[in-house]
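Just wondering, can you check both lines?
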Amino acid sequence: MLGEEFVLLVIFIGVAIGTISSIVGLGGGILIIPTCIFILGFDPKSAIVISLFGMTGLTTSASISYMYKRMVNYRLAILYNIWDIPGVIVGGFITVYISGNILAGICGSIILFMAILLFRNKKDPTMCSTDKSEVNKVENKIPTKNRKHSKLEIDNIYLVSLSSFSGGVITGLAGLGGGTADTTSMVLLGMEPKRAAATSEFAMASTSFFGVITHLILGTYTGSLLWPILICIGTVIGAQIGAYLCPKMESTKIRKILACLVFYTGILLVLVMFGIGWTVTK
């Protein structure tokens, strides 16, 4: 009976995390990993792989729903993917020379700063509308030479590239926070929160999938596949719930929820630097 209760608990946790994460455009790893370690009792290495399974299900499920709703900015998602990859590589190389826990603290401090900016961020209300007529009105006010930037729905294409690369570096350094950095930077650079959430989920889907494949090929996870599959089932269901709720919520509320989760991420990474939580060194 205890086994059945544990199975239901894992699925329920996946649903809850999938719902919250898909609303604000996160992969869910920052919630899944500590939950697996401190509540479900998995070791850190297993928790990372379980998290990747959950994130793959979450981001794929949410992406499909957001694509159907036509909320994804494919140009911006591809741009983020392009710069995320070299960022992850650079971050991985840096960990060879500096302690992973120290790097986690540095990344946490950066993310905390982004959270503060997100709490203070206020945009023109017309940019918070998903109505095409409103978007067209805004685009008509944009000078022709800057019209190409409106297709990306951000204020500065160069800052997008920098923020995407930085998000990849953070992922490579600490193994956490990449999706948090991507979604937050989209909002801070002027993108409407609902569109940012949808675009971020789409951008993270391929990254999470290849992460799972990599770990399976390398054989870093030797436990039962039951738990990764169960958490994945939960996040798939939760992602559909979140993708349904997101368009119905006010953009200001989504931004506040995102800011709280970003702040939580930063605190968690700073605590790791002081040995509170789990080590990110290998």
